[in-house]
Amino acid sequence: MSKKINKKVRKKFVERFNEEPLVVFSPGRINLIGEHTDYNDGYAFPAAINKGISAGITKSKTDFSTIVALDKNEEYTFKVNEVAPLEKGGWRNYILGVVGEAQAKGYEIGNFNLSFSGNVPGGAGMSSSAALENAIGFALNELFQLNISKEELIYISQKAEHNYAGVHCGIMDQFASMFGEKKSALLLDCRNINAEVREFNLEGYKLILINTNVKHDLSESAYNKRRASCERVAAKLRVKALRDATEHDLNLIKDEISDDDYRKARYVIQENKRVNAFMKAVENSDIYSLGKLLYQSHEGLSKDYEVSCEELDFLVELAKKSEAVVGARMMGGGFGGCTINLVKKEGLDEFKKEVSLTFKEKFKRNCSIYKVKLSKGTHVVNLKN
What we know:
single chain, 385 residues, alpha+beta, Ribosomal Protein S5, domain 2, Alpha-Beta Plaits, six-stranded mixed sheet, four-stranded antiparallel sheet, 13 strands, 22% strand, globular
């Protein structure tokens, strides 16, 4: 799936700049469970997928840089010594952010030419922004031989999102995109950024993403409000983050905080417990416990954390009615995007037909359905002519 997009980027780069580029592919990610836990120092279970962003890059022979966003048919030029966030900069701010944050750490970056394209849908909860940031950082590191470690690169990507895109994200998206491995997911401890690679054997089952095609924009205030809510409760509990709290601790201060803050914190504490239960189910190949935990996660995200929407809830209810589906939940930041579904192979085609028809009847528009494979993290692509 990624080969096609890598070839497209190389071809278009040569046509535009008349040079052979270095090509980097950076995957999007799914998160099997552990949503909105990363900025609470908690646990998550993400994986890189075979959809992402491909970027071609060379050094510029001029005193400015040129970026070509192939999917948007847009170009942008700037000078690396004049980098600053743009008001309503969109995709430009992710690239400028990586350049600016790398420079802030003392790395010298020259002007460059870059083109990029992606097959990970924006706003679908697959972290197209982290894939783009990682692609740019990795490409610049290779091109200018900066010797930045992969771990430092993901923090540069995260800072770009904070300071240029205005989203105070955790580190999970960038980590999974950078460090993913084939046929495996990463049990990620978001406090110390340690991850254990766990093989995720889905024999007889498929991971299916169903995109509502409702776009969400995490730079809106909703994401940051929830983060602030969690931080207020952690401060009240006198712990570093909600990862250190139990439901018993939370109930002791229930009367001292708002109902809204209580429910947001309860969701995070319960979701951390679900990640650990999920891991045990993976180790025991207990597919039905995995499904049950997915449904529980969605219930918390919808009712307590309030980041779902009518379309996502509708898809999860449809999944519950299907004998082919073991479990489902909304995935990503919320307010649209995808559900992730664990589906038996033999019932997959019928389930897809049912979902497509029923969703269109209800919402008068199409949903999109993707099969995804767990794949390798950000890497240089060796393209043979």
